[in-house]
Amino acid sequence: MSKRTVYDPTDPAFRLENSPFYLIAHADFRYHQQMDEALQHHGVSKPIYRIMTVLRERQPVSIGTLADVALTKRSTVSRIVDRMVDQGLAATAPNDADSRITDVTLTDAGQRTLDKLTPVVGEQLDRAFAGIAEADMTALLSTLRRISSNLAKADRG
Amino acid sequence: MSKRTVYDPTDPAFRLENSPFYLIAHADFRYHQQMDEALQHHGVSKPIYRIMTVLRERQPVSIGTLADVALTKRSTVSRIVDRMVDQGLAATAPNDADSRITDVTLTDAGQRTLDKLTPVVGEQLDRAFAGIAEADMTALLSTLRRISSNLAKADRG
DNA sequence: CATCAATACTTGCATCTGCACGTAATCGGC
DNA sequence: GCCGATTACGTGCAGATGCAAGTATTGATG
């Protein structure tokens, strides 16, 4: 007989509330809920903030890379960046070496907005992880990485 | 000085790839990617499958409860159920005791579809959790529950 | 250097989602 | 038993997303 874990949905004992991906979705959902509220106070949309967090680390960066890192389709990122340009948060320019590529950078206003938002998000993270031991956080990250890696493998296979 | 963890986005050492919620989103994203492919082969959309997993455990169930458990807005669930009814997967009827409530149930065809899908999803979960110790899974669930609970508290406060 | 394939992005279209509002039904105070 | 408040759901509308197709640019091949 197939000996799976209790997370096996074919098992009659299976319950959604014990299902890892349900709990992952749940944590993700609550986080987005909080983010939405916090960001709206500052007039920034969730997708725009998501792109900004990538731009914080890499700049300039192409639309394609933004899409890969932000887990969003290219066409969607293209439009999000359009909005950011409209709002004066980002600037685009064709890449010097390869003019097919659109280099995206934060404007000064965009950087200021991000700097304003970062501590707000930081406080939410403090609340989210309150009472969780450092070792447990490390284990969480490690397990999540393994799950992502397993699924990425399955993608190619 | 505020002594946060390295997951503090205000810290210059902060990196997206080490951020818990980024990794949560990443795992969620890969899972959805896999699901989409698997479900499309069976002509079932992701939102419909999501609702079905709730109906597996509770039946009949109201639109509102479906929305709460499936982490989706009521109006959206209302329309997803419409589609399920159109496709012959679900049936609706006003609740006997309170006719404001719409009781949703799976039809026989819907149950058969779910039965067909469940082992497919089970195999994906096997792949996703391959090589992860039982104790690590338990820790993962525990930490995720704590995070959700922390954020739910923050919601009310 | 001409040509075909591949890459990077953009846009038209269809779909999905959520908000705000409207309708129907139930509950509570009197 | 009646009337206002609440609850549960459905719908018009606007915004966002993804797919498929199109354009522009680069690379590879001869």
Automatic annotation (TrEMBL), chains A, B:
Protein origin, superkingdom: Bacteria
Gene3D superfamilies noted in UniProt: Winged helix-like DNA-binding domain superfamily/Winged helix DNA-binding domain
One Pfam short name: MarR_2
Residue runs in coiled coils: none
Xref: PROSITE patterns: HTH_MARR_2
GO BP terms: response to stress
UniProt domain HTH marR-type: residue ranges: 17-149
Gene Ontology MF: a single term: DNA-binding transcription factor activity
InterPro entries reported for this sequence: HTH_MarR-typ (IPR000835), MarR/SlyA-like (IPR039422), WH-like_DNA-bd_sf (IPR036388), WH_DNA-bd_sf (IPR036390)
Protein name listed in UniProt: MarR family transcriptional regulator
Organism for this UniProt entry: Sphingomonas baiyangensis
